[in-house]
Structures are given as structure tokens and as C-alpha cells.
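User: I want to check something. If I give you two sequences, will you return the structure for each one separately, not as a complex?

Assistant: Yes, each is folded on its own. Here is the first sequence with its structure:
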Amino acid sequence: MTLLDRVRNAMRGFLRIEPAKETGITILESLTFESNAAKNRIWYRGNASELAQLYKQMDGVQDSFWAAVPTRGMEIRKIHVGIPALTVDVLASVVIADMYDVKVPKPLTNQWEQVLTQNRLKELCQKAVSEVLIVGDGAFRLSFDPAVSPEPMIEFIGGDSLEYTIKRGRITEVIFRTLYENGRFLLREIYGYGYVRYELTQNGKPVPLDSLPETAALTDVRFDDRIMLAVPLMFSGSGQFPGRGKSIFDGKTDSYDALDEAWSQWMHALRQSRPTKFLPPNYIPKDPFTGADLLPNPFDNTFVRSEGGMPEGGSGQHPELVQPNIPYESYLSTYITALDIALQGVISPSTLGIDTKKLENAEAQREKEKTTLYTRNRIVTALQEVLPKAVAAALQLRELQGSGRFLEIDLDEIEVAFGEYANPSFESQVETVGKGRSQGIMSVEAAVDELYGDTKDEDWKQVEVQRIKAQTGVETMQEPMFTEV
């Protein structure tokens, strides 16, 4: 027996280690995906009265600002600053504003132009981005209704009105839910590969489709198994609800609550710190009709009646004005800290037009924009993956309705290009690229591509390269042909 074995045996005899016992931990989720989506929509709507009603009906939030009930006589005005809605609207704008036209293979250009005549793609994409940011996910739904449009129609449905069938981590069905007659009837539209099925239930029990006039004309549809007329969209997965998307409000609502509290307290302190007048009886305003003393208004006419006695140093015979001091720096610091926590990891304050650091340097401004850039890149990446599928499905549906044949489309040939965000000015790009060319570390082709990016197509870039080479004395000529004599 080696020395190591003897030491190991001695330790076993001296130190007895028992394995940990398995202990079950039970966590009660306060909200389902649908109720969490409803909460996020209330935050996006930004109505203070609706927020107060929402939090008074939720469990586990009794200590939050919006759920708190002030003591009688000490009421405080609860103010919502509107940051959640502003964040969603600005993010959707900075993404879609730089979206170029969708390019399809040349043989399909005319067909795609016909589809675009009945669908406003940019408005649809802006709605899609906003819905996914608020709810967490959603799906493009493609349908054909000759009574409404001669071309396929593209809609976007938020995640709170649909559910997924997931097999081995892949979405095989998208089920759209529509309520009728105040929720008594539920229509489930099941979109899968090669089919669309409809199910109608009344109070949870299946009923025929002709039970409602709105659904009487619906019939199940079968087509090629390689096509699904629903394309899901999400920007990031949820850690709480497997298989669903994550809203940018998830994990931020407590920070929004604290931000609203900081601003409301500041405004309450400002109202309470208005100048207060100590008035002897003969200075108190009188009612011109009855002669009775007018009661003070806590908002714009605050005064205190002094009965001869006054605070130390007062005479009691003349009015005296007292102006409390407001700890402005303390309130400002609290508000900026709460704002930073509410926005961190999502969007830069400068993107929203908020300059909390008073930095005027252009480079510093671009540095602050990096958070917005990361979020935007995540959204753009998801759109560049999903939009070609939606475009291809629309063209395939159009072909199915026309000839009944399956249209083979290579998704790599559908291009959805986006411009750069918060990029340096054109002048600074010219200066940087010019230095690279002058130092011999950048070719003409690379310089043109870097300078113009996605703003110009490849054909234009090639022509521009030839023009630059011709101006600099570089010409491409055919080799001379020699014939044997």
C-alpha cells in the first residue's frame, strides 16, 4: 500500500461525509405567458390609471409603487414617465428606417411587386418589431381571400394570440386564436406544413364551424407539405416560458416602477415645497359674497393662519413668506440612477434624446450608442433570417393559387438589406479609406465596398471600380492575339 492510499484511508476513517439529501423546491409562478403579455401591454400603453388598477390585482407586488395605497390625507400624485413605450417605438424606428427594399430573384420580381401592391411591407415590419419587443414573439400569417385582395395577404399576429406546437425543439405548427362574442367562442387556426385546419369551441367544447356567421365559410385546406403559411419571429428566447420569446420588458418592470416612484416623489416634493404664507387674521382672503375666510388651496394658494404667535423671529402682525429648500441634487441623482438601471442592456439614453452626462464630444456620443447598436443588431439578424421565409411563403402561396404547382425558391437568393446605424460621417469614412489606399493596404474594390456598403448594389460598385482605375491610369485590355504564319 502506497503512502497516498494510507492517507486516503485515514481520512475516510476520521472524516465521514454523507451525500446531500434531495430537497424539492416549489415555486409558484405569478403570471402565465398570456397574462405576462397583458401586463407588458399595459406598461406600453403608459396610462397611470391602468397601471394602478393592474398592480392592485396582481399578487406579490403589494410593496411596489403602483400597488401602494397612500394613507388618507397623504395622497401623492403617481406619474408614469413613459420610458417603456418610448423605448419600443424608438427601437422599432431605428431598425425599420434603415431597411432597404427586399430583393428577390429576377424571374420573380414582377410577382413580388404585385404582392407589394396589397401589402405595406415597412409598416408591417415596424408593427412586427414593436409586437415582439412588447410581447416576446409573434408570427407572420399568410392567407388568400379574393373578396379582400387579389394577392396574398401578409399579417403579423402578436404572441399573446397564438401558441406553438414544438417537436424536438422545432416549431411544427402555429395556432392562431381568435375570440368571438366576449370570449364565448374560440376559433383556433392551425397552420402546419401542408395544411391549414380550423377548430371552433364554445365554452371549451367543440362545435361546428357554422355555429358562427364569421366562421361558417371556413374549410380546411391541404397543399404541398414543404410549405407552412406561418413564419414565427422572436428576438431571444424566454428563460421563464420554454419555447416562447422574451420581451424587453421582462425583468425591467420593477425598474420602471422605481423610476416612476423617483419622479413622482420629486414632483411631490416640489409641490410640497412651494412658498407658504403665514397670514394674520386680517390678511386672510375673504369670500366676496359671504365674507367668510377662503380655505387654502394646496396647489396654488397655500397659507397658514397665524393667531398672534409666529415662528421664532416673527412679529405676528405682518404676513411672512417661508420657502423650504429642495434637495435638487439628491433627487436628480436618484432619478438618473433609476433611469440607467431601467435602460441598461436595452438602449442608450442618448438614443432617446436623454443626455444624462452632458457630453458633447461626438466620439463619446457614439460610444454611448453601442448598447442601442447591440440591441438593433439582434433585431436585424432575426429579421434577415425570418423575412426571406415570409417572402418565399407569399410567392409560393401566389403560385399555388394560380397554377397549383409548388414554387421552388432558394432563400439565399432573397436579400433583406439594412443600412448602418450610428456610423461615422461620410467625410470621416472618406478620410479613413483614403489613408488605407495611400498606404497600400487596401485595394480599390475593398475601398469602394467599405465606403458605400449596402447603399449601392454590386453592379454599381463594379462600374465605380472601373471608373476609378481608368482615372488613375489603370486600364484592363485584352491580350493581343498572335497567329502563326
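And separately, the second sequence with its own structure:
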Amino acid sequence: MKIAIVGTGYVGLVSGACFAEMGADVTCIDVDKRKIEMLSSGQIPIYEPGLEELVVRNVADGRLRFSTELGECLDDVEIVFSAVGTPPDEDGSADLRYVLEVAREFGRKINRYTLLVTKSTVPVGTAQKVKEAVNEELATRGVEVEFDVASNPEFLKEGDAIDDFMKPDRVVVGVESERARQLMERLYKPFMMNNYRMIFTDVASAEMIKYAANSMLATRISFMNDIANLCEIVGADVNMVRKGIGADVRIGSKFLYAGCGYGGSCFPKDVKALIRTAEQKGYRMQVLEAVEAVNERQKGILFEKFVREFDGEVAGRCVAMWGLSFKPETDDMREAPSLVLIERLLAAGCRVRVFDPIAMDEARRRLGDSVEYCESKYEALEGADALMIVTEWKQFRLPNWIRVAEAMKGGVVIDGRNIYERHEVEAVGLKYLRIG
């Protein structure tokens, strides 16, 4: 089966590599010539465990190729996936300019029946706009060509994307025709051999499912962060609370971990976009407005603890920071709590020494020389009054606490992910602060 994927960002590249691994003939399209040249030579512009190996193998086997021109492959493919970016606009709504440009290019170039599938996260109603854009281009050409529009939202977790794609817990597809349904079913059949997990819906419902899923997960995170802050006030332990409520089968234990806020490319953007979609229809998403507000407040929680610990006397102090990416196993720093924290520390006159196993280059791109970049987690501690753990990378899980205490000037550890045991940290004379 031959398919094309427009957009070689995180979603497009992972999707293309995984479809190729299952035997599909895949052409990935991007307007960025430099990126296409990199990919064609085996260089991967993003970090995702296992992705480079997958891309290199399938390029070598001839199932995966890269191009800057959609028109070069349109006469051969049965399905075109649109996986371009939908960045938040100034008001938080999703910017659809790239999605609609793909639709227009599709309309300018198709000559026979082809299925156009939106894989980007888009607001409800986007499929209709895509269809209109295609029809406008066909009308301009003065031709009639059959096509269908479908929605196939992705549910990939950065750091586990390959496994998520190859062994999905569900594949959601919104279609308008039986022909489109059969094409999508045939494409995904190799992924369904052990357990059929395809959910077919109308297109609008598929578009909504993606936003609703991410918003629910974000809600659980903000809920637990709110509970954690109340736990500190009343003397309860949020870890015990989490275990107690997570044992309820109606609730479950996932996404109930308190921390210093969520970030990344999905949750912040999708929560904002769903709020704006509702506003445009004259409705307020009051729960999600609170979710967003709690999360923005939570990103400053480590700074607040730091200031309280030093009685407001923080100017000139040195802070070591372990972790910069919004989560482990990625170099993604979009909406990362570390960015808010660093901004506040610098504004307060602090020196900041940072280390992240993967995201250092991305940090340099975003932060320039405003912070000090270190070669290891222990180097970051030299002369530090406080250590802040912002991302729960595995290599941070079992530090040598004696070495930590010896390297630091001060003795305060502020754990933004609650990954340590208090008695282990305090046994070497360090003071341990955590969330909740």
C-alpha cells in the first residue's frame, strides 16, 4: 500500500517510519529542504528512542523516502496524511494555516480518487474547512475528482512513541464513506493482528476525541497538584492520598502524580484550543479554565519554595537544576516548567547551573548564555545553594547523596517530581522539600 505523509515533525516522522516498518510504501513530504536532505542521509532532527534505527532501516530497504514535493507521488498513493503543525495562535486557538495549505496543494494536484487524512490535532469542524479548500482548488482547475476527507488523531507519548504506534491501545478514525473506512482498515490491519482496536466514528467526533483525551489527562494532573498544595497546608501526604484514591477502580492510578506542572506540545496547546473553540461557540469550559490556571501557577511552585526557604534573600544565590525537557526521554522543551522556573530565578538575581541528558542543545537554542551549562549532574552542583529536580530522568533516580552534599555550597534539595525518599536525602545532612 502506498501512502504519503505531509510534515516530518514528531507525528509525521514517527508515523511514516512505523507504517514503513509494517510494510507500507511511504513518502514523507516537507517544505524544509534542509530537513529532507538530513533525513535522506539518515540524520534525525528530533530525539525519540528507537526512531533513528527505524528510519535508517526502512530507508535502506526502500520502503521510506523523503521529498519536498507532494505532487511527485500523488498519482501513486492511495492515502495522504496531513501531519503538519497546528501551533497556538495569539488567543490560544489552533492555527490552521498549514493544514489548509496541505488541503489546497492536495486539491491542486490530485487526478484520481485519494483519501486525505488529517493526523494533526485540529479543532472540531476542521474537516469541513479542509474539504472546502480542496473543492475550491478543484473548481479553479475546472475538474471533478473524487476524494474523501478523514480524521485520524494520534495518541503518541513522547519517549514511548514507537511502542505506542506499533501497539496502540486504540486507533480512532473519523470517516464519511465506506470506501474511506475500508482504506483505513486495510492500512491499520497489520497493527490489529492480536487485538482489534479500531474505533470508527464520524469526523467531528474523531476530532473531539483527541482534545477530550488530552484535556482529561491534563485535568487529572492539575487536580492532583491542587490536592498536593492543600496537603502541605493541612499536613497530609499527597503520595499516600494518591495511593488511596488510585486504588479505586473507577479512578485508577495513572496521571495522579503531583509535580511542578505539565508542559510539552500537546496538553497546554490542546487545553487552550478547546477552551477557545468553546468560546467561539458561546460556551465556557470552566473546568478546563481552572486546569490551565492551576498548571500555570504550579510551574512556579519550586521557585516559591526556594524563596520561602531562604526568607526571600535569594539574589546572588546559585541554583543547580536537574532536567530541562518537559518530560524524560525527549528533548522537547515546549511549555516546559523549567523555562518558567529559570525565568523567575534569573529575574530574582540568581545564578542557574543546568544539566539535562538530552535537551542541552535545545536549551542553548532557547536560553542562550543566560544559564551555565554543565557536563554532568554532579558538575551542576558545584557551588549551588539549592538543587531543583525538574524532570524525572532515570539517571537522576539514584544519586550518590554523599557526593551531592559534598559538591553543594548549601544543603537544600527541592524535588519537583517527588522521586526521592526523605530519609535518604536527609541522612547526609541535606534538607528535602517536595510537592505535597
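Because they were folded independently, the notes below concern the second chain alone. The chain has a mean pLDDT of 94. The longest strand covers residues 2-6.
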